[in-house]
């Protein structure tokens, strides 16, 4: 840290990208970042290329056409949508705009909530998942206005919380904002979108990074009531009015115009996921039921790190979390193509019998 860094950043705890960078060197099958294994369609690539011809101009700061199309697809109004440079940016806007009275989220969930809370000096408390790694909705009560963040389905567990339970959390906390992060909802579970009409303390966050094959384009969005959307847009326009480049806006729009491809890709991932789950169980893994594009699994006798290292040595990168201890025997395995997963299964069979 340089002597010029503002002292408020002395305890900065940034996202560790080292393993991700290592996995990008071309020598691994990357099952560690929950990306889609499918490239964007040719139509999407063409539209991005066309938009490259307008790079001399600033992009539309309101992502007007994209928001209109999203609104149409989600049956909400364009004024109820804000678009971000990945859903991470939306989460950052939310931590910036709200959370004055603190935040709360499960102890095992998407790591960025804690990172952002620390960055923004937001006081946070975590709620333990139950022994089956499920969110306990009744824990989210009497929170004195803390903003509640729930990834649904949750990561890295892959487990979803029923819509009734989500509604209970939203309804029991009228003085708290409830943020439901639905990065993986296209692969399973139920969206909280249907609660937006009746609850004005709810923000639903989504991304193009998983089911829509656009992690590299950096595109996320949220849906909420107009008043909250206006607050988030004001924060956005204060930091980064042109947060979505023209190629990404065009690619995003083209992706939405080709829902058939997205839906077909989702089906493929779900089918492969269920097959890999059964195969892993056959060779001694406990695998949580997943509503996402990844599996969370531990072996009945071998440690999580050992499995992670054995796969890595053989050219397959999965995600291992050394803490908290309660999940250190697990690995998170992104579902790739059927071919990649066949290779993964052959490799893991070899690894557990070595
Ligand atoms: N939420 C969850 C639960 C995630 O797992 C991720 C991706 N790792 C994100 C949000 C952020 O995704 P992106 O910024 O690519 O939209």
Describe the model.
The protein folds into two domains: 7-39 and 260-352, Aspartate Aminotransferase, domain 1 (Alpha-Beta Complex), CATH 3.90.1150; 42-258, Type I PLP-dependent aspartate aminotransferase-like (Major domain) (Aspartate Aminotransferase, domain 2, 3-Layer(aba) Sandwich), CATH 3.40.640.10. The protein is globular, with a radius of gyration of 20 Å. Helix 2 (42-52) runs antiparallel to helix 8 (246-256), helix 3 (64-74) runs parallel beside helix 8 and helix 4 crosses helix 7. The strands form three sheets. The chain has a seven-stranded mixed sheet with strand order 2-8-7-6-5-3-4, with helices on both faces. With 354 residues, the protein is of the alpha/beta class. The protein has helices at 18-23, 42-52, 64-74, 87-97, 112-119, 163-172, 226-239, 246-256, 259-282, 304-313, 338-352, and strands at 29-30, 81-84, 103-106, 124-127, 147-151, 178-181, 202-207, 220-224, 285-287, 294-299, 316-317, 319-320, 330-334. The termini are far apart. It contains eleven helices and 13 strands. The longest helix is centred in the C-terminal third of the chain and has 24 residues, at 259-282. Helices cover 37% and strands 15% of the residues. Bound molecules: 4'-deoxy-4'-aminopyridoxal-5'-phosphate. 4'-deoxy-4'-aminopyridoxal-5'-phosphate is lined by residues 34, 86-88, 110, 151, 155, 181, 183, 207, 209, 215, 220.
């Amino acid at each position: 840290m340089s002597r010029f860094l503002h002292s408020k950043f002395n305890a900065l705890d940034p996202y560790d990208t080292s393993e991700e960078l290592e996995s990008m060197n071309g020598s691994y099958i990357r099952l560690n970042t929950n990306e889609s294994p499918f490239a964007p369609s040719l139509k999407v690539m063409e539209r991005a290329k066309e938009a490259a011809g307008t790079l001399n101009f600033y992009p539309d700061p309101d992502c007007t056409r994209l928001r209109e199309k999203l609104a149409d697809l989600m049956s909400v109004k364009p004024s109820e949508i804000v678009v971000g440079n990945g859903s991470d940016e939306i989460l950052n806007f939310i931590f910036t705009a709200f959370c004055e009275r603190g935040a709360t989220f499960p102890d095992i969930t998407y790591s960025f909530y804690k990172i952002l809370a620390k960055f923004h000096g937001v006081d946070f408390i975590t709620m333990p998942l139950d022994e089956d790694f499920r969110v306990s909705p009744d824990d989210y009560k009497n929170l004195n206005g803390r903003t509640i963040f729930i990834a649904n389905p949750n990561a890295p567990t892959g487990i979803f919380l029923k819509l009734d339970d989500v509604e209970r959390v939203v309804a029991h906390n009228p003085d708290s904002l409830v943020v439901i992060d639905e990065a993986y909802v296209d692969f399973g579970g139920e969206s909280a979108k249907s609660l937006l009409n009746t609850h004005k303390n709810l923000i639903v966050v989504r991304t193009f990074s998983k089911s829509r094959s656009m992690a590299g384009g950096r595109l996320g969005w949220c849906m909420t009531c107009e008043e909250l959307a206006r607050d988030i847009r004001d924060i956005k326009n204060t930091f980064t009015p042109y947060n979505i480049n023209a190629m990404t806006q065009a690619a995003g729009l083209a992706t939405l115009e080709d829902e058939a491809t997205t839906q077909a890709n989702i089906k493929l991932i779900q089918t492969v996921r269920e097959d890999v789950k059964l195969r892993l169980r056959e060779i001694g893994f406990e695998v949580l039921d997943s509503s996402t594009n990844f599996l969370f699994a531990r072996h009945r006798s071998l440690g999580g790190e050992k499995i992670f290292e054995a796969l890595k040595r053989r050219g397959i990168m999965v995600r291992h979390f050394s803490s908290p201890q309660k999940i250190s025997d697990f690995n998170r395995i992104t579902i790739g193509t059927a071919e990649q997963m066949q290779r993964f299964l052959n490799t893991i069979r070899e690894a557990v019998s070595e």
